[in-house]
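Let us practice reading a record.
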Amino acid sequence: MERVSAATAGRLPVLLPPGPARGGGAAPWAGRFGAPAAYLVFGLVDILVFGLHAKGDVTFSFTPEFAKVSVPNLSLAAAATAYCCGAVTAALAAVRLLDVLGVVAAGRVARRVLIGAVLFLFVIALLAWASGGQPIPFNVVNLLSGTLSESIPIMLGALTAVICSTSGVINIAIEGQLLLGAFCAAIATTVTGSLWLGLICGALAGSLVAAVLAAFAIAYRVDQVVLGVVLNTLVLGLTGYLYNAIMVPYGDTLNNPATFNPVKIPLLGDIPIIGPVFFDASVFLYLTYALLLVIHFGLARTRWGLRTRAVGEHPVAADTVGIRVLATRYRNVILAGLIAGIGGAYFTVGSVGSFGPDMSSGEGYIALAAMIFGRYTPFGAIGAALLFGFTTQLQSILSSINVPIQSNLLLLTPYVVTIIVVAGLVGKVRGPRAEGIPFVKS
């Protein structure tokens, strides 16, 4: 077949076969009424668990230390707050039930707003129960700031997964990319004394793992899921061995990196509540902002994005119009590895200040779950990553205020949320058709 010029790639969507029907016919009874039932369960928990056991008043603080503009605290009766949250949640369950029965028509956006409202009310009721009667106010700004900080590696890993999956490659090796990026950033920063050089070395380390993944998955057509698990195990063992061999005996010279200080954006950083959260943060958060916008715009509005989506959806059609499928996948996987490496560098030069074995703690796998929950879109993946980061920060705060829950159970919270989200809340999500399928040029 005669090839056409690369400029003809603008007509590529015409060559792609239509996607499967998303409706899938009438939903079963459990599927139709599952959402109202879940909302009602949340409401009952708010009332019967949090409301009945809440004590005293709960005070919410919205002003961090040394802020130029202060916001008055908000004090509420803990039990009454939980009861109100439960009652409103039950009302939202009734609205969702009317939508299921066809009495009212709620669109997709309205349904998502309902989900967000139910989760928000659940968190408020939880905080009212946990902080009720505490002498120290619950600082909302610290919770939100900690959420963003905890989410940075997950957000960058999720963006990595979005690029790879959109290109047709399943990247299970994000965990290994994060871990090797953290290891190399710690050594490079300690030896050279340069934080930026450490950040660059961490990014390159992530791209190194990505290059190995690309070589075996694309050129040798190895099963991508198995390959990712093997690479994660390899990096875990390698960094663990090198940590014991060189970092433990020479910690001061190889594992004592400095960390980036928070950077406050003038004027924006002084805005009450949102300023300290979004504009007085680590340079890694600003890099995440930039990468999110670039990737979203690139995938949706540029020729690179069109070709990336083409090789992930229908590589044969892409090859027909002159797109180099294998080269595109190689470039995208290695480029995404740079992003994951930056996320790994955050562990050592952006947060902790030293490397520890397995310090990524499964956040690479959580990033994959965030991508799926976010429906393979950059903004969706970031939103899901923030959800997981929020649960991590929340369990850390709850541990510090001595709630009557065992600490081991609190530590399980992010992973339990991951299972619940992927198993029960994601719904029907269709990834790129050629994801995980090796391309063999005819």
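A brief commentary: The first strand starts at residue 57 and ends at 61.
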